[in-house]
């Protein structure tokens, strides 16, 4: 890969079930690309549930359109029991275990969380074929793929990457890059939302969701060689905010529920850092354009990085609230107490609603939002004449 050629990176952020939105965006891109087109993203980076999408896409990089079709079918067929124990015995046992061990300090010292996500391990082991990554790299359909997880002891955001040998590992403040052969364990670690899902041990350290303390979500893609990035976010328009009058808001004056508080904490983890990093990168680009042409921008870390962002045009928590009836009865009862099944607390629900109706609506929203930016996408990816399959 010549350094003079732009290298396009794809960044898929985290967010539990919200990551279904990313699949719709990818489906739209597959429609815009000519039939038989190569993988348009030499660098693919994912965090949390976005890591699952990233690795699935990378393992099928030999045939981008087919990889997206498989990923779409994967999400459209989701049910909660495929990701976590949603039956009455499973929910009750895990809740009591969490109470005894984590709150009272009783029982065996094992990683315990509010939800039992052990079914997800079996699902990923059965559906993902990670050997395709090595083949895609060997045949130059892929430069690198990476997933980020958070080390609970080290406090580091660790980006585990698999790519060409010329990529150097990196060390920055609380974030490092480590070359490795990616496995299901890395995906489980990256998607282990704190307190909700149990941390996963890799080598000698336990890891959790990569969005935790990931201060620079775009940085791994740049370290892996990307010179421009497509960012697919999972945030939506804030409820109650009029885009034309953003300062005019309506308030109920009610105390926040536990789920409402938890929803804001999850949003802070999964969304705020990414949006802040995008804003910082755009400001650095503007600053770089103001410097004289003779300035060695690359040496100063100010080489321009083109960024295209696609994010939900509708509030995802409102979509989740409409689909709350799809939850299994045990999970619905478990989440009702904290207020997650109410509209005000649907932020938490939007991360945990692994059901076909909800995921399918997010996929369709992602497809529409991406096609609404058809001209920008075609220019960004170098597609001369878009071909949209009805």
Order of helices and strands: EHEHHHHHEEEEHEEHEHEHHHHH
**Cα Rg:** 21 Å
Q: How much helix, percentage-wise, in residues?
A: 40-55%
Q: Count helical runs.
A: 14
Counting helices, strands and paired strands, the structural category is alpha/beta
Unreliable stretches: none
Shape: globular
**Which sheet architecture does the biggest sheet show?**
10 strands, mixed
Number of strands: 10
Written account of the structure:
This protein is of the alpha/beta class and 390 residues long. The protein is built from 14 helices and ten strands. Strands 1, 2, 3, 4, 5, 6, 7, 8, 9 and 10 form a ten-stranded mixed sheet that branches. Helix 1 runs antiparallel to helix 3. The chain is globular. The mean pLDDT is 85.
Q: How does the SSE layout of this entry go?
A:
Layout: E1 8-12, H1 20-32, E2 43-47, H2 49-59, H3 64-76, H4 88-103, H5 118-127, H6 131-138, E3 144-151, E4 157-163, E5 170-172, E6 175-179, H7 184-190, E7 200-202, E8 205-209, H8 219-223, E9 228-232, H9 258-290, E10 306-310, H10 316-322, H11 329-336, H12 346-352, H13 356-372, H14 374-381
Helix pairs in contact: 1-3, 1-13, 2-3, 9-12, 10-12
């Amino acid at each position: 890969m010549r350094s003079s050629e732009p290298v396009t990176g794809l960044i898929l952020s985290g967010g539990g079930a919200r990551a279904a939105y990313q699949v719709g965006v990818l489906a739209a891109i597959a429609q815009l690309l000519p039939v038989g087109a190569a993988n348009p993203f030499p660098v693919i980076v994912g965090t949390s549930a976005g890591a699952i999408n990233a690795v699935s896409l990378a393992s099928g990089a030999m045939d981008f359109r087919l990889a997206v079709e498989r990923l779409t079918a994967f999400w459209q067929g989701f049910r909660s029991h495929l990701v976590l124990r949603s039956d009455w015995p499973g929910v009750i046992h895990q809740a009591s275990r969490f109470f005894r061990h984590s709150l009272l300090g009783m029982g065996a010292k094992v990683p315990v969380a509010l939800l039992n996500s052990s079914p997800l391990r079996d699902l990923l082991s059965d559906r993902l074929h990670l050997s395709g990554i090595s083949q895609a790299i060997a045949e130059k359909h892929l430069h690198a793929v990476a997933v980020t997880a958070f080390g609970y002891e080290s406090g580091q955001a660790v980006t585990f990457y698999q790519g060409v040998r010329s990529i150097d590992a990196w060390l920055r403040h609380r974030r490092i890059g480590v070359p490795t052969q990616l496995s299901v364990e890395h995906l489980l670690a990256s998607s282990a939302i704190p307190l909700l899902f149990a941390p996963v041990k890799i080598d000698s350290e336990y890891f959790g969701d990569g969005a935790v303390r990931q201060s620079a979500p775009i940085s791994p893609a740049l370290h892996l060689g990307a010179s421009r990035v497509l960012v697919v976010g999972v945030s939506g328009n804030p409820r109650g905010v009029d885009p034309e009058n953003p300062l005019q808001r309506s308030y109920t004056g009610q105390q926040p529920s536990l789920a409402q508080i938890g929803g804001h904490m999850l949003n802070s983890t999964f969304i705020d850092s990414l949006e802040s990093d995008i804003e910082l990168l755009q400001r650095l680009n503007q600053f770089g354009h103001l410097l004289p042409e003779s300035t060695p921008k690359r040496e100063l870390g100010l080489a321009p990085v083109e960024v295209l962002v696609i994010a939900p045009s509708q509030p995802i928590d409102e979509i989740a609230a409409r689909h709350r009836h799809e939850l299994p009865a045990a999970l619905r009862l478990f989440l009702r107490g904290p207020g997650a099944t109410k509209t005000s607390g649907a932020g938490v629900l939007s991360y945990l609603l692994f059901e076909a109706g909800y995921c399918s609506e997010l996929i369709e929203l992602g497809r529409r939002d991406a096609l609404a930016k058809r001209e920008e996408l075609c220019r960004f990816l170098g597609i001369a004449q878009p071909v949209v399959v009805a």
